[in-house]
Amino acid sequence: xxxxxxxxxxxxxxxxxxxxxxxxxxxxxxxxxxxxxxxxxxxxxxxxxxxxxxxxxxxxxxxxxxxxxxxxxxxxxxxxxxxxxxxxxxxxxxxxxxxxxxxxxxxxxxxxxxxxxxxxxxxxxxxxxxxxxxxxxxxxxxxxxxxxxxxxxxxxxxxxxxxxx
Length: 165
Known about the structure:
Blueprint: E1 2-6, H1 21-36, E2 41-47, E3 56-65, E4 82-92, H2 101-120, E5 124-128, H3 132-139, E6 144-146, E7 149-156, H4 157-164
Parallel strand pairs: 4-5
Antiparallel strand pairs: 1-2, 2-3, 3-4, 5-7, 6-7
Helix pairs in contact: 2-4
């Protein structure tokens, strides 16, 4: 059975390889330090059959955005600056890609953000897509491309709620 949990010392970070060295290096060298410094939280997907092996991961952090970064049709709804969450990184090990684990990770991240938003208030989540294909993938979940950069996307909290209702 798959499970998502916070990154811990017991997880084998060294064997994870998603095919993107920057994502591999972050997990291996910086993710735990960022958590220790309260900068971000990294969550890993594991299989209960081998709980030390990381199948995928994502990193969440908070951010403040200026109203002009929000898609224009939503601009009038927000003060200045605006609290939000950011999906800073998401990756699936190369051996498990194209099997739906990315969607599982993304949905878990959205659920965590929705839970946080209920207690502290967040307008939604931002993500920086690495390319047009990734941006199109996120758009399928309701993410809106920012007018200033189509590879930066925003998912309103209300849309996340609808996905889970």
